[in-house]
Amino acid sequence: MLKKVTAGVLVGAMLTISACSSSNETKNGEDKGSSNKKVEISFVDVSPSPDRTKYFNEVIAAFEQANPDIRVKMETVPWDQAFKKLAMQGASKTMPDVVNMYPTWLNTFVPAGYLEPLSTRYDAWSDKDKLTNFVSGITMEELQRKVYKEIYYMPDALMSSALFVRKDWFKDANLPLPTTWDELFTASEKLTDPAKNRYGWAYRGSRAGFDQIFAYITAVTGGESYEKDGTSVLLRPEALEAFVRFTDIYKKGFAPKDAINWGYQEMVQGFTSGVTGILNQTTEVIATAKSSMTDDSWTVIPYPKGADGKRYIGASATWGYSVSAESKHKDESWKFIEFLSSPENNLKYSNALTMIPIFKNEDKTLAEGPMQGFIDTLDDPDSYLVADLGNFPELGEFRESFMDAEVQKYLLNKQTAEQTLKNLGDFLTKAQQKYMKDNPEVPLPHVTKPQMK
Amino acid sequence: MKRFRSKEPYFMLAPSFLLLFIFLIYPLLSSFLYAFQSYKLTAPNDIGFNGIANFKAVFQDANFGMVLRNSFLWVVLTVGGQFVLGFILALALRKPFPGRNFYQAIVFLPWAVSSFVVGLTFRWLLNAEYGPVNDLLMKWGIIENKIYFLSDPNLALYTVILTMIWYGVPFFAIMLLAAMQSIPEDLYEAASIDGAGIWSKFWHITFSYIKQTIVLTLLLRTIWVFAAADLIYIMTAGGPANSSNILSSYMFMKAYATLDYGQASAIGLFFMALLIVFCYLFMRATKFEKAGNF
């Protein structure tokens, strides 16, 4: 009897223990591996798609062939959950060795100490001189070393905003393709015909919809997002005017009424399924549009110019590769990042996913078709890179749960435009001014001139 | 050996208590602690106790009143609708008719489908741009303009409630039908001989026989519906502008969109207190301990 009972208790205890300790076990396994000179590093892709997974599988196979003593285990997490999952993994010290990092996440992850500085490795990197000025000057220095004192990620490629338009609708309506915001607003009105279920604008009312409004607001504030003392530009009177003008696209019905719930996926679908005529999106959508629409029905045009004749455009590293501070195999992880960032692999990646490569394009063989258009737009003397919203840790909360709900209240006539901009502006001002007090050495986000050469 | 014998039950229970502790008590205690801390994953360096600041923030939240009102509507309309329709369905299925088993399998089907699939299907059906519901209603001339089921703040909550009712009707039907089938047929025969009509047969036999089941299913269902956030999350994510959030989905958004575990735990504690009060009142009102002989 005694034996039976003890056995029962033991089995129960072992079940619970093994259920709780599975993560420890894998770590032990890794350590054993390193003594056999075979190291396994984990890598997480935060925006999986069939194209990306295919690319990464190929490049990992090539890497393992070149480095027989390193194995790479790839994991993926859907984009909508990526930040939350990584934040939790960081807090519980289980972040994978190599992480696909979204640039604004550094605000949270660097002060928390989840990421390994890569500065010395980057400074000694042999391909460093081949980077475009945009990457080496802005992405690496302005946006990383000047803010965080160290470099934390290697950009995978660059992404830039652009306008996707229905060429055939513009032709039918006898409209020229817009080059300024004014023409764009007129066009979105003229293309709208609810009877045909056609609307001018693929309006993004939810999940980062405020970014689209802010892109227009920066066109009237000269690309700036803060005054010198850290006050948000949203409190300027011209920002209010711009806000009302942009949101009128929705309020006056030049976008489907449903669009108040539209996020990334719905707005892209709204464009590719022929409900809307203009879509403000980043370059990676080219691949989607190519596969679901006929070539003569759509095209991509450069971002419009503001009233001052200048073009204020958002462009940044799409994602980057970072090493987790908890990683036990930092050298191997860097080796993998170096391999991903070689000029050949970077070009392959950029072409497969329609993004802008991080290296100089000296012989013009690099980018294909519309991608060269993006590079030329950024290189144009009238193009400026808009300032971002800052580096304070509350930015995650602002973006994830605050900004869109405030704008939706205005769209649904539950709050005035003045009140909406005051709420948004006060949030940003308070957070930015607090950040400036705590980090006096970090420069204010400001407008810059991109250089792709 | 004898001393061991007397303790034997505790040894046997130990593993399950251990599991309960790990998966129930520990999370409960830690959420209790989180509720009194500033615990935001977006600010991992500022974690620490902050008294009742989380509760203050939650109760002063401009959305909180609307969320509470929505929760009330959600529970009352959903459970009420599911109960009435489930009861009717159970009554209809009680007497045998040709093809009953087949019919029964079809109407109980929604219960077997994952709520994720239900949510996505209804979201597509009710989509204003390419959903078939609006399209058919317009083609049949029933409506002139599209109905924005999920993007109109006055409709979004009711749309999800309708979906939830459809989804939960089979649960009531299954439970009530099982109870009805245990009613002995001779009771009805005896009643007929005594000259009872349909209504008094229903009231004095069917209803009073299954009263206990009704009380129990209503209680279970209310708790369950009150805590169910999945359909709301999938169909509207609480939008537009929080107009379709209920307490549980609001808590979920706080925890997983804002990553503010402190405030989410505060909502959770409030939520638990509400449910405990509700269960107590419900059991008193229905004389639950006397097996529902009200």
Please characterize this protein's 3D structure.
- The complex is a heterodimer of chains A (453) and B (294).
- With 453 residues, chain A is of the alpha/beta class.
- Chain A has two domains: 39-159 and 316-372, 3-Layer(aba) Sandwich (D-Maltodextrin-Binding Protein, domain 2), CATH 3.40.190; 161-315 and 386-438, 3-Layer(aba) Sandwich (D-Maltodextrin-Binding Protein, domain 2), CATH 3.40.190.
- Chain A has 18 helices and twelve strands.
- In chain A, the strands form three sheets. Chain A has a five-stranded mixed β-sheet, with helices on both faces.
- In chain A, helix 3 packs antiparallel against helix 15.
- Chain A is globular.
- Chain B is mostly helical and 294 residues long.
- Chain B has one domain (51-288): MetI-like fold.
- Chain B has a two-stranded antiparallel ribbon with strand order 1-2.
- Chain B is globular, with a radius of gyration of 24 Å.
- Chain A: This is ABC transporter substrate-binding protein.
- Chain A: InterPro entries: Bact_solute-bd_prot1, SBP.
- Chain A: It comes from Cohnella abietis.
- Chain B: One of its GO terms (biological process) is transmembrane transport.
- Chain B: This is ABC transporter permease.
- Chain B: It is found in: Cell membrane.
Which second-level CATH architecture of chain B applies?
Answer: Orthogonal Bundle
**CATH architecture label name of the largest domain in chain A:** 3-Layer(aba) Sandwich
Low-confidence segments of chain B, given as residue ranges, are none
| Low-confidence residue ranges of chain A | 9-35
Per DSSP E runs of 2 or more residues, the count of β-strands of chain B stands at 2
Any idea of the CATH class of the largest domain in chain A?
Alpha Beta
Specify the number of helices of chain B. 14
Structural class of chain B: mainly alpha
Give the amount of beta strand of chain A, in percent: 5-15%
Mean pLDDT of chain B: 89
How many domains make up the 3D coordinates of chain B? 1
| Oligomeric form | heterodimer
Cα Rg of chain A: 24 Å
Q: Give the overall form of chain A.
A: globular
Ends distance of chain B: 50 Å
Query: Numbering strands along the chain, what is their spatial order in the largest sheet of chain B?
Result: 1-2
